[in-house]
Amino acid sequence: MKFWDQYRLRLERKRRRARSLRKRRELTPAALNVSKIQKNDVILFSTLRNEKIRLPFFFEYYRKMGVNHFCLVDNGSDDGTLEYLISQPDVSVWHTTRSYKRAGFGMDWLNGLLGAYAVGHWCLIVDVDEFFVYPHCDTRPIQALTHWLDQSSTRSFGTQLVDTYPKGKISEAHYRPGDNPMTVSDHFDAGNYYYERNRKYGNLWIQGGARQRGFFAGRPAFAPALNKIPLVKWKRGNVFVSSTHNLLPRSLNLVYAHNGGQRASGCLVHTKFLEMFSTKTKEELARKQHYAASREYNSYSKHRGGKHDLWNGQSVKYKDWRQLETLGLMSSGDWA
Amino acid sequence: MELGFVILAHENLHRVGALVEYLANQNCAVSLHIDAHTPIDASNELRDRFKANKHVMFTDSIHCEWGRFSLVQASLSAAELLLQRHPNIGHVALISGSCLPIRPIKQFKHFLSRHKATDFIQSVSVEKDKWVQDGLNEERFTLFFPVSWKRHRYTFDKLVQAQRLFGVNRQIPIHIEPHTGSQWWCLTGHTLRAIVNDPNRGVNDSYFKHCWIPDESYFQTLVRNHSERIESRSLTFAKFDAQGKPFILYDDHLDAISKSDAFFVRKVWAGADEMYAQLLAENRDKVPMSKVGAKSIDEHFELAIERRTSGGVGYFNAGRFPGGHAGSLGQTVAPFAVHYGLNDLYPDITEWLCKSSDMVCHGHLFHRQKVEFATGAKNFLGGLDGNVKIRNRNPYGFLQNILWNDRTNKHSFQFDLRDHQAVRTRLIQDHNARIIVIREGWILKFLAAKKLGKDVPSYARQLQDMERAFLLELEQQDTRAQITMFNLQEVLENPRDILTCALGILDDVAKPALIDMPKMVDLQGVNKAIRDLKNAGLTLETVALVKSAGEKRSGEMPRSTPKLVQ
């Protein structure tokens, strides 16, 4: 990489950081428990809106994994999400009604919070419908992983998003608070993914899966990116560029082995497709707050929203991380 | 006293405390060195805890650094203290603060009582054998290493390079014959005392001070001068990964490590509550030393190294994307066959291949209008969609997915110039591709068009140009595919060859003779087609057949040999 390119990335990083500091002012603390954060704690960051129904299981899953604190941005929920979050002891909540889109789809807010509270910590940046799955996650807490990453002088951990969907119509996948969404929306595409590399930022660019074939078959190049780097040991000056797909400095994106072989990596099980999906689609389309003129939601709406059935004869039922490793979607690498 | 321990600790002192207490309760002497980098209040707490315990002693803390003599210095001073307090000690074992005993100490003592005069230390001659996996071996002993590798990697590497350039070769003291081995040993009190009180101690220390990683060579070398009986193996199980750092053990390794034939393991994760609770329980039962599965934990980690360095052939994920010089390797999971132009000669070739071989025989996977999976379905294993637009977005990725998703089977597919061509370049560079080519096979397409229309010759010329470009590509230097070339004439004269070749291309053993042949396209008029094309101004390699194909006597025909281009 040329010196000039490196310098341009450095300028971009500075610009994004300055922007995140400015945008951080849009946030009002609603419940501030950050003083409870201890050295070596793992902190989860997320932006959410009207997700109350998903929250009980979300907290159960990540607390069990060993996440010590949650830093969440509530973007103008009106279903009681904010009140629910405030009642949690290990959650710090910031509230804003400002534009999600103009805050880089929430990333400016999170970059701001990460810069303020995450420096020196391992942090997990996921959406409320995404469940982090890493090698041995059934027997080892997340601290085992972060300790090993520290020992390996690695500062970030790569994952691939795996979209799950129910067998049958999406609108008939009934979900009650506290249910495990991975047992309701429980099928996925096992080997339908395409891998490229983004030269500028150095990250992988993964597309495919159920969303590509189900909603973007006519324009596959526009299908959502499935590469995510959700686990990062935060250092002052780091910024996410586009969602958690890539970040700066560029070295944090090099989570994969490029000389043959494979490094340890995980998956994010994405349980978007539950019965709430069609109402959510309508709502989000009306708000027009999503990436690239909400083309993803436009596409969902065109495909009859919730009436769509993503299941086809080849779908695989989700079991656990070992299944994902056997299928080649993740790897335990040399973390045995 | 029968047994003493020298423990080197530098972190997680609460775990070290538990280990020390366990050992002291088993009536073992413990001499502890705490790294001076450890926070002072934590180390004071540990000292206070064992102040009254007569089995536990502490040496002065020094700053230890990986790869430097300070580690040996720490072990030596702790050993000296132990020998001073317990002059009649039987055996002394060196372990780290993150080690745990796999077997009860009672069992260990019993084992040592049967080997009273044996020193258990891995000691491999540097000249005769190579113990060091990666990195410096003999040069550890003949160069100078004034800076730390961990802190000054660049300077370290440059200094090594410079010394190589100037041919630096340190004089090894005459009584020293370099040996290396695992850092963790168990020596008899007698041998250890001899090393500590060596009349050449001053020479030894000042020599090893400038060696690289002396903790893996100091005792390992000197034991050769003093021991009566050496068993060259470590009683502590420790395994290193490709980066050279020890594998860490977790609760889920408990089963596998208890089968190991060692007495101690390292390195245990400080958060492995279950493992600490079980292995440090008082009154543990004897853990049998069976030979069965003794290597299972070792194999487990060997597999991990392999996965990290060369695993994942044929698929990608967030942790794997081979590029650069590694790009051509490990792209597809297994050999696959590509039949170029066979379909023109045999319209039913796919069905025939399916019937006559154990391959999964796809039609034109890269057909411009539709994807012809072998199953005839719209999608394939793994949820792979037969949508042409999705396929065309990354055609080679599409092929990789097919091969990986159905990796238990062998695959073949039809391909010709009328298909979507984007996959071609990568196909030719794939060392797993086995391509059968019939040159000028496209002529047969003109049999179907009974008489040559006006635009047909120009279409033919176009096809011919494309084929020439394709054949040129096959001759490029980066071609890694195995290519078997036939020309149309050979095939028409002796169709058996190409069919046998197509059937057996993915097998190592030859197939039995063909029984039923696929139906060939009607060759009535092949001569006329060739003539017409020639008259239209094309230069063709194929000449008109002497006899019509229907009357040919294959037994009399000279057998043509396919040309193999690597």
From TrEMBL, chain A:
Pfam families xrefs: Glyco_tranf_2_4
SUPFAM superfamilies in the cross-refs: Nucleotide-diphospho-sugar transferases
InterPro entries: Nucleotide-diphossugar_trans (IPR029044)
Protein name: Glycosyl transferase family 2
Origin species: Paramylibacter ulvae
TrEMBL record, chain B:
Membrane topology type: Single-pass type II membrane protein
Keyword Membrane: yes
Compartment annotation: Endoplasmic reticulum membrane; Golgi apparatus membrane
Any matching Pfam family: Branch
Domain DUF5927: 266-564
Primary subcellular site in the record, as a coarse category: endoplasmic reticulum
Keywords of the record: Disulfide bond, Endoplasmic reticulum, Glycoprotein, Glycosyltransferase, Golgi apparatus, Membrane, Metal-binding, Signal-anchor, Transferase, Transmembrane, Transmembrane helix
Signal sequence range: none
An MF annotation (GO) of this entry: transferase activity
The organism's place on the tree of life at top rank: Bacteria
Protein's recorded name: Peptide O-xylosyltransferase
Organism field: Paramylibacter ulvae
